[in-house]
Design a protein that fits this description.
Elements lengths: L6 H11 L25 H11 L18 H13 L3 E5 L2 H13 L5 E5 L4 H10 L2 E5 L15 H10 L5 E5 L6 E2 L3 H9 L3 E5 L16 H4 L3 E4 L1 H4 L7 E5 L6 H11 L6 H17 L5 H16 L5 E2 L12 E2 L3 E6 L6 H10 L6 E2 L4 E4 L6 H24 L13 E2 L5 E2 L13 H13 L25 E2 L6 E5 L13 E3 L14 H12 L3 E3 L8 E5 L1
Parallel strand pairs: 2-3, 2-4, 4-6, 6-7
Antiparallel strand pairs: 1-8, 3-16, 5-10, 7-8, 9-11, 11-13, 12-13, 14-15, 17-20, 18-19
């Protein structure tokens, strides 16, 4: 078989093979710091780092310059663009964060309005701050089975653009951390028809579009600017990512200039070489490269589905939801169906058995099956889950829960894999507002409320978070005061208030505080919700802009 064609890696390897006399940075001089020392005391460090250091160099005539690519880096980026279906691709050595920052700095001038999905990564918020842009936030959809936020509906995007036709672009995140994704083609068509740009944080979907069972990529759907974390679901080193651009709407020169601003002037050549190799591996193996991981995840899901009783449950790719179109087959959610163990506890129990999960929240632990996950890996995971199931059974026997308080966090599936929704507590009641969704989640988490609880102390049935907000300025302010939350209506918040779950901000810094949001925050605080971003955990007070 022919060798991989990875021009950047090849140029670095060729330079290292020449054993150059280094009179330049970096100071480790291609790993020569270890010298001829063969003592066992430094052997682990030498074995771990010397090979990487041989590729770690600086901008030379033999290596090219990321900020003005003309040789190996330029060719590597061109090959990546062709592989991922973009017109232009830029390598990122600061993760998707640097790509999100560059897109916003390149697209937005100070004071510009941009439509933004409310539950975005913090790098998007930081980009808005750096750009001095104003964000009109739109609410995501909520998956009724899980309470997890996904992409805003196309109707919400349409409403926002109708209210703010001067907006420069729409910025969304797809897929979410849980692998739930929505087909973006209709979004791109509509947004382009309105003369706007579609910008997508696709950090968790770098592998999309390379296998029939994987969702379509945002590039394939027609988005103008797409940021992908190649290190998350492909094989680049950590912080290796890509920014893909296409079409005439996106001011590419401005985005490239912004990249030069936010990225290091001394970029990591090993990270860039790993991006080059990741692309080369895709081109060599195509969909066959993803087959082992997809098969492994399917085997594990089927094992969970066949358990009786089902102490652990998961979502399945064939399940359907009104809040998303497709579930990433390489991402598996696990929950304790008795509700006795949180996602955090399940994560800890998995770690005790040597299985390390991607993340956890109060309900779920999320597993990412890598491209080359093996059946041996699955067997180890199954053994760990069997041990956890035994613990769940023992806990259920020694600590009985009243039937009405048992949270059924995932729906049952009938023989035809259809969803049986009627008894699922997450879908009981009115889900047309985030306010009601958060109430239900808080009740499940607290385990001390019943369906017949009196409602006189609950907020009214208005959404505490507007479906489409007024433009929120992210310009920095140094004049801040602390006031009682009950007296803050009409003031602009100086801090972000994020109840968890579900992790969607009720308030952003710069957003106007309403009576509805005060009622919502007070209600959640009363029932023990945790708040991220708020300086007063009790939420009796809040910081506001003077």
């Amino acid at each position: 078989m022919n060798r991989l064609h990875a021009p950047l890696f090849e140029s670095l390897r060729k330079l290292a093979d020449q054993r150059p006399a280094s009179f330049h940075v970096p100071g480790h001089r291609y790993g020569s710091i270890f010298g001829d020392d063969s003592s066992s005391s430094i052997e682990p460090e030498k074995a771990a780092f010397q090979a990487i250091m041989q590729l770690d160099t600086t901008e030379l005539s033999a290596t090219d310059d990321l900020h003005h690519p003309e040789a190996a880096i330029a060719e590597a980026q061109q090959l990546a663009a062709a592989c991922f279906g973009a017109e232009e691709t830029c390598f990122l050595v600061g993760g998707s964060t640097s790509g999100n920052l560059a897109l916003l700095l390149g697209v937005c001038d100070p004071g510009d309005i941009i439509i933004v999905q409310r539950n975005v990564h913090k790098s998007v918020i930081n980009g808005l701050k750096l750009a001095g842009a104003r964000a009109v936030f739109i609410m995501p959809q909520i998956d009724e089975r899980t309470g997890i936020a996904t992409l805003p509906s196309l109707a919400s995007v349409s409403q926002a653009l109708a209210q703010y036709p001067e907006a420069k672009a729409v910025f969304v995140t797809n897929p979410n951390y849980y692998g739930m994704s929505t087909r973006l083609g209709p979004y791109a068509d509509f947004i382009h028809a309105e003369g706007k740009m579609l910008l997508v944080d696709e950090a968790h979907g770098a592998h999309y579009g390379f296998h029939p069972l994987l969702p379509e990529s945002a590039v394939g759907a027609g988005a103008d600017g797409v940021v992908q974390s190649t290190h998350k679901t492909l094989t680049a080193l950590t912080m290796g990512a890509m920014l893909h651009m296409q079409g005439e709407r996106l001011p590419r020169a401005a985005v490239r200039q912004a990249l030069a601003t936010v990225q290091s002037s001394s970029p990591s050549f090993p990270i860039m070489a790993s991006l080059d190799i990741s692309r080369a591996m895709i081109e060599r193996h195509r969909e066959g490269w993803f087959e082992p991981g997809i098969q492994a995840a399917a085997v594990f899901r089927n094992w969970l589905a066949e358990r009786n009783p089902k102490w652990l449950a998961t979502l399945h790719p064939e399940d359907r939801s009104s809040a998303y179109d497709q579930l990433d087959p390489l991402r598996v959610l696990i929950t304790d169906t008795t509700g006795n163990h949180s996602g955090f506890e399940l994560q800890r129990l998995l770690e005790e058995q040597g299985c390390w999960a991607e993340m956890a929240d109060p309900r779920y632990v999320v597993l990412v099956f890598g491209i080359q996950t093996t059946m041996q890996d699955v067997e180890r995971l199954i053994k760990a889950c069997e041990i956890i199931e035994a613990r769940i059974v023992n806990f259920a026997v020694t600590t009985p829960i009243m039937p009405e308080a048992q949270p059924k966090l995932l729906p049952e599936r009938d023989a035809n894999s259809a969803l049986v929704m009627s008894s699922h507590p997450i879908v009981q009641g009115d889900l047309k507002s985030l306010q009601t969704e958060i109430e239900v989640q808080t009740e499940v988490q607290a385990k001390d409320q019943t369906e017949n609880q009196a409602t006189e102390d609950q907020p009214d049935n208005l959404a505490s978070v507007q479906a489409v907000t007024e433009p929120i300025s992210f310009a920095r302010t140094n004049s801040i005061a602390r006031v009682k939350l009950a007296e803050a209506a009409g003031r602009c918040s100086a801090e972000m208030v994020v109840p968890y779950p579900p992790g969607i901000p009720v308030l952003y810094a710069g957003e106007r505080i309403t009576e509805a949001s005060i009622r919502q925050i007070s209600h959640l605080a009363k029932h023990g919700a945790k708040f991220q971003g708020a300086s007063d955990p009790s939420m009796q007070t809040i910081e506001v802009q003077e």
